[in-house]
Every structure is written in C-alpha cells, then in structure tokens.
Amino acid sequence: MSIESIVIWLIVGAVAGWLAGMVVKGGGFGLLRNIAIGVIGAVVAGWLLPRIGLRMSGGTMAAIINATIGGIIVLVVLSLLRRA
Questions:
Q1: Would you state the pLDDT for residue 69?
Q2: Sign of CA dihedral 28, 30, 10, 45
Q3: pTM for the whole thing?
Q4: Are 37 and 69 in contact (CB under 8 A)?
Q5: Neighbours of 19 (CB within 10 A)
Q6: Alpha helices, H only, 1-84
C-alpha cells in the first residue's frame, strides 16, 4: 500500500465518520474518532452490504457512501449497547 492510498483511506474514513456522526448523534466526534468510525464502518459495510444484495461500483464517492452506511450501523449498535 502506498502512502497516497493510506492518506485517501484516512480521508474517506474521516468524512464517512463525520457524516455518520451527523446522522446519528447530530455532530462529529473529533478527527481520530471520525476516522476510526469511518474505517470500522467501511469494514462492516464491506461485509454486510453484499450479503443483503447492495453493491456499489468503485470510486471514492461509493467508498464514502459505503463507509458512512457502515458507520451509521456501528453508531446505532454502540448506542443500543450503552442503553442496555
């Protein structure tokens, strides 16, 4: 993996985490937490979405959308676990 791809990966994670935070909580969580939520969300979406029949073509925008959907799922699950 090149430095450029790592930087793009982190930027996509940050944007996706921020968007997920805006949807679920109404605000972001800071740069590092946004990146973590976005990256974890990308992993969750990469595993879950194809299993339910949702596939997006490649590209940065598709990666951001997938990671955001996964980030929203992660944040909803975390909020449910906190309430329990």
A1: 92
A2: negative
A3: 0.84
A4: no
A5: 22
A6: 3-24, 31-51, 60-83
